[in-house]
Amino acid sequence: MTLLRLILLRILTTAITLFGVAVIVFVVIRVVPGNPIAMMLPPGATDADIARLQAQYGFDKSIFEQFIIWLGGVMQGDFGTSISLRQPVSMLVLGRLPATLELSIFALVIAVIIGGMMALTGTRYRDTKTEGAIDVTAGMALSVPDFLWGLVLILLFGVLWPVFHISGRISPSLNIDFTTNFYVFESLLRLRFDVWLDLLSHMFMPALALAIPLAAIIAQLLKQSLKETMHLDYVTLARTKGYGEHHVITREALPNAILPTLTLVGVQFTFLIGGTVIIERLFSYEGLGNMAIDAVINRDLPLIQGIVILFALLFTLVNLAVDMLYVVLNPRLRHA
Amino acid sequence: MTLSRRSLLKSSAAAATFAVVGLPSFAQAIDELVIAYNVNLPSWDPTVGLSAVNPTIQGFYQSVFDLFIPQNTDLSFGSGIITDYGWNDDRSAIWMDVREGVSWHNGDPLTAEDVAWSLTRAGNPDSGNPIQFIWGKVNNIQTDGNRVTADMPEYEPTFFKWMSFLTGYVMPKKYYEEVGAEGFEAAPVGTGPYMVEKFERNAFVRLKANENYWGGAPEFKTVTIKFVTDAASRVAEVESGNSHVTLEVPYEEFDRLKAKDGIDGVAAPISDIGMIFLNDIEVMTDPNVRMAAAHAIDKSLIIERLLSGYGVPIDTLQTPDYVAYDDSIKVPYDPEKSKELLAASGYGPDNPVKFKIQTTKGFKPKDYEMVQAIVGLWRRVGIEAEIEVYEIAKHFELRAADQLAPAAFYNWGNSVGDPTTSTGFAMFGPSPHSVWDGEDTFNAILPLWGEADEAKRIEGWKAVDKRIAENAEVIPLLQYVQPILHTDAVKVTPHRSGALLPHLMTRA
């Protein structure tokens, strides 16, 4: 019952949040300088031409009227048509979403693996030089932004030791006829391992660039949490029972220590998705973030609105999922 | 947790396997040409919407479609789908001969009907063609065999030049009417040297050679153009061998890479120029201030120091390739003259004239740095300019509303090379792209729009450029040079328009 109430409450707050985001984005992008009509004016445009273009895109109406019209469309699943790409916004953003999600999930997996390994190793060798080295590594990883990691990776694995693809999502020479845009998952289902490896080879560098700072955060928090847990009585009891250090850390301490890390990973995952905007641009990865930059440059207002709403929806859904998972994993909350 | 030798070997083997399987296909003998392009292609219809007037993507369009009249690499006009053209005696009608034996990519024959339909569609205000104001100047478009005729009630001297410029593409009547706009977007059909095989928006386009191309089949049978918008990534693409050709890389990187084995480079001037718009408001209504600002800029020094020498100083809005270029018009670097001019208006280093200059940052190579250098040069003579950085979208908005600052840096493209599309649109007050409202310039330009005598028209524009330079109503700075990097296994022929055209590339 608690879980159901929580879900209903979160759905309600999600709807309110999305409406608020929609209002803010709609107003802000119309108030900031940079009129899309001015960008498409032909050299000999007259006042009548300008008025015709404004009417064609609905910019001749007040912001409030434009918002009501847009909201009416959204209620029916119509997010408008992109000015620069001349395609339905919903089709464009939903078409790109899988690429960004796959990249983000891959980055998250890498971050959890690297961060988790660092935390476990640091805990195992606590108060030694190994822990010091891990702390220094995590500090360095955290102090460099993801796009700089991207440039370093391009130099290392794209130029000096060119083993991974520098740009794109998939090699143009590969013929794929997939039904979804979740290429990684679908290639596995179809047993197209050539495609799968090619996708991973394209995703590795952008995903690693996104993952490095998050891995450092996970390493620091999880190690701290593990070290605190290692002093608790039940862990001492496990030791007295004769369990080895490896068993004590991974089987006894980790399940309790992981809860705060899980919450953090959820929050950081939303930041990671936000980070794809720059990283996708750097690696010419055909995701939502890359499209967002083009939309902003072209002042493609309907597309900007669609992308921001989708990002907001993603953020709230991820947070909701984390909350749910926390309830499931934490017995005290589950039985409250 | 310990790292054993066995686990280390396992990890290394796994990494090596992954690396080898995922290894990019580096070119040995080039079967498939790969180009890392600096911009995305938003839309395939080259005649409608925002992208149709984007000069940076015309190379894509010219690979798949044919312009009515093609331009040679030096911007001269060639013979293409329209082989011959002209006006009648009183210049109230035009005629065009359409090339015979040309096929669309789907095998349909190209006919004069296609040309007539393309012109009619372009001139329809509801078509969404941004250059409708030109195409709409003809009506009663008729075909007779391979000849197309049309009435032109109001003489437009640049009409045929526009046929080599933005939106001047021949479109397939039958196919377009069959599939509609959406179908055309999904599977574009042209008559150009390449056919679209595969298009992933924001990722790449894969082209197949049109073996029946009327101008001869291109040498590379398959071309992949990857959209790599980040300059550092483009450099890495070529340096790693993932791409064979790229363009618009920083000049320093261009010099570094072309010195490496296996990589070559070509840097040629293109039709884009850098300039400073002067808005005749505030202190810019004083000709002494404007002229002082113009004479205080050492263009050669800026090109040498900031652009590694890649640029051509200019003193009018015409580059040396343009038909109305006049090399006798000079605005020399003369800081002493600037000081004298400012002194005549009561200004000097102790009492500087103050105004704002707007610029983009990173939109064009070293744009902000150039403006910084100019502001430094101005300071020496008694001009104190405050720099405001803005986005290009804001520039367009302010320019259309005639609200630019007294000085504003911008770049202007004019691959057709006619003075109307440079000085004309930039300096004629009523144009949405001009912020100069001076009546004298307006009156000087007005009769040139419809001047039927071509020699007189060009001389008229030269005279306009001369008086604009003498009064410093705009400050032209430089003609840009486009850096193209390529593997030495490919020969690249640059086009003055700035379009990177794969059908002009051959094996070295």
Characterise this structure.
The complex is a heterodimer of chains A (336) and B (508). With 336 residues, chain A is mainly α. Chain A contains 14 helices and no strands. Chain A has helices spanning 2-31, 36-39, 47-56, 63-75, 89-124, 129-143, 146-160, 183-189, 193-229, 233-240, 245-282, 288-297, 301-329, 331-334. Chain A is globular and about 85 Å long. The N and C termini of chain A lie close together (10 Å). Chain B has 508 residues and is an alpha+beta fold. Chain B has a domain at 271-481: Roll (Dipeptide-binding Protein, domain 3), CATH 3.10.105.10. In chain B, strands 1, 6, 7, 8, 9, 10, 11, 12, 13, 14 and 15 form an eleven-stranded mixed beta sheet that branches. In chain B, helix 12 links the parallel strand 12 and strand 13 (383-389). The model of chain B is unreliable at 7-11 and 13-27 (pLDDT under 50). Classes of the chains: A mainly alpha (336), B alpha+beta (508). At the A-B interface, helix 2, helix 3, helix 5, helix 7 and helix 9 of A face helix 1, helix 4, strand 8, helix 7 and helix 13 of B.
